């Protein structure tokens, strides 16, 4: 549970959230259900999906760096 309450855990959660929302954008049924709202609380999912699809190279490299950090350095 230590990773949940640390800055590393917040970064890992954010990266996984962005990657998951970007994946949801590629699935038509989930895209219509979860990413249809662009404002409000549900708009966070849409905005994370947009970040994940537009900055996919940077997000992928960040995920690899975070995985290396968690597995080997922590």
From TrEMBL:
Xref: Pfam families: DUF1242 (PF06842)
Entry keywords, A to Z: Golgi apparatus, Membrane, Signal, Transmembrane, Transmembrane helix
Localisation: Golgi apparatus membrane
Main subcellular localisation: Golgi
Membrane association type: Single-pass type I membrane protein
Entry's Gene Ontology cellular component terms: Golgi membrane
Domain of life: Eukaryota
The UniProt record lists the keyword Repeat: no
Membrane-crossing residue ranges in chain numbering: 6-24, 44-72
Mitochondrion keyword on record: no
Purpose of the protein: Involved in the early part of the secretory pathway.
Family the entry assigns: Belongs to the KISH family.
Protein name as catalogued: Protein kish
Protein's organism: Tetraodon nigroviridis
């Amino acid at each position: 549970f230590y990773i949940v309450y640390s800055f590393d855990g917040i970064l890992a959660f954010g990266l996984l959230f962005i990657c998951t929302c970007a994946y949801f954008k590629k699935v038509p049924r989930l895209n219509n259900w979860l990413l249809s709202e662009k404002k409000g609380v549900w708009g966070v999912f849409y905005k994370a999906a947009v970040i994940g699809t537009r900055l996919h190279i940077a997000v992928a490299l960040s995920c690899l760096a975070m995985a290396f950090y968690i597995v080997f350095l922590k």
